[in-house]
Amino acid sequence: MASLDDLMSAISARITNAQADGGSAAAMAGALVVREDAHDLATEIEKAIAKIGMCILIGQPTFDQTATEFSPNATLEIRLAIAIGEVPIIWRTGAGRPKAQNVAVLLTQLLHNLKIPGFANLRVAHCHYVPDKKRQLFELAIETSMVAPPLP
């Protein structure tokens, strides 16, 4: 059975692979992709923002169990957020690097309708600008679902 860790890993791999030379989102090359369950999250984010100027943070998934009490399986409606943080004076010194809002669009194109085994296709529900005095910050809301059979 698929796990929430599988979901985060697949999203991270999709973004990282797209950043590679010849990838579908090579303009994002160099942006650090970090999972919220990283060992030293605060340090990794601060180093990325200070050195690279762009950090893509994959948030921890949360879920609601929506199956009725008569269903033997749990139906999990899963939500997670992806934050795109940019310090423009650092990130945009590289030629052709996209603004944080354009990275949000690229991530939407990469992730919307993505099929991850064990989950319903991903849905990018919305993007919000988050006011921040130090950086440009956008947040994508991602939705999916999975069916979890009972354990023996």
Give structural notes.
This protein is of the alpha+beta class and 152 residues long. 28% of the residues lie in helices and 30% in strands. The chain has a single domain, classed as Phage tail protein-like (STM4215-like), CATH 3.30.2000. It has 4 helices and 6 strands. Strands 1, 2, 3, 4, 5 and 6 form a 6-stranded mixed β-sheet that branches. The longest helix is centred in the N-terminal third of the chain and has 16 residues, at 4-19.
Average pLDDT rating: 93
For the largest beta-sheet, the strand count, sense and barrel status come to:
6 strands, mixed
Q: Pairing-aware structural class of the strands and helices?
A: alpha+beta
CATH H-tier superfamily:
Phage tail protein-like
CATH architecture: 2-Layer Sandwich
The end-to-end distance, rounded to whole angstroms, is: 13 Å
List unreliable stretches of 5+ residues.
none
* Radius of gyration, CA atoms, in whole angstroms: 17 Å
Number of strands: 6
Quickly count the helices: 4
CATH topology-level fold name = STM4215-like
Q: How many separate structural domains?
A: 1
Strand content is 25-35%
